[in-house]
Specification:
single chain; Rossmann fold; seven-stranded mixed β-sheet; 13 strands; globular
Length: 244
């Protein structure tokens, strides 16, 4: 190899390294519920697939993913969703739930999107959380992506700007009244997510119970149920690929 060839090779290597350094990888904040029960006789928590499927897809894309709960406590799983947690491929997601950050200590400016999985837990803590509302308003004002699935959209109820609900005028979906009845949880929930979103001024849309359904309206992506977890994650990835 001549000296000239060596110089060209060094330049190419330096260029490749520079390109690699300058590649922007999206940073995702996933906010999980700490609530783990309806009452003393009925447990709930995070519906695992709604967290694990998006989390692993984001990791596979090379995204940086941080997990937070309101008080930095471990997020617990809805027992009804634990049938998949022993599979080795879910290990990373399960470990990520054990040591979340405290939501109020999160630097929102460091993230490109906030993603809120469901399970019934968000109805009991995130839906009326001032900290959750503050985070959502920050993301909204900075034009960043807000995404929630199943009962996760209940968290969007916490956000108001000048007393106007964040969701007003947005087309959204979430776990439906029909699905709540089929799950036999309609007598346990403190409120209907579908009804509350409508009351807040959202344009609520839905498909049949169990159908895969994702709605993208401006900078808010919502999904109807856990069956939609894969499509939900794909919609977020597609959105960020165009924005980041």
């Amino acid at each position: 190899m001549t000296d000239k060839d060596k110089d060209v090779e060094v330049i190419e290597e330096d260029f490749a390294e520079a390109c690699e350094i300058n590649v922007s990888r999206p940073n995702i904040l996933m906010v999980l519920t700490e609530a783990d029960r309806f009452d003393e006789h009925h447990k709930t928590g995070v519906w695992f697939e709604e967290f694990a499927i998006p989390y692993l897809k984001f990791i596979d894309e090379g995204y940086d993913v941080s997990v937070a709960t309101l008080h930095g406590k471990e997020a617990l799983l809805d027992p009804a969703s634990t049938n998949i947690i022993d599979d080795i491929k879910w290990h990373k997601a399960k470990e990520a739930m054990k040591s979340p950050q405290k939501l109020s200590e999160i630097n929102c400016s460091a993230f490109d999107a906030v993603v809120i999985p469901g399970g019934h837990g968000p109805l009991f803590d995130l839906a009326d959380s001032e900290e959750m509302g503050d985070v959502l308003i920050r993301f909204y004002e900075e034009g960043k992506l807000i995404a929630a699935i199943c009962h996760g959209p209940a968290a969007l109820l916490s956000a108001k700007k000048a007393d106007i609900p964040l969701v007003k005028g947005y087309e959204l979906t979430a776990f439906t009244n029909e699905e709540e009845i089929e799950a036999k949880k309609d007598g346990l929930v403190p409120f209907s997510v579908e009804d509350k979103l409508k009351e807040a001024g959202a344009k609520f849309v839905k498909e049949a119970p169990g159908a895969v359904y994702v709605v993208n309206d401006r900078n808010i992506i919502t999904a109807q149920n856990y069956q939609s977890a894969g499509a939900f994650a794909d919609a977020i990835i597609e959105y960020l690929s165009e924005k980041v």
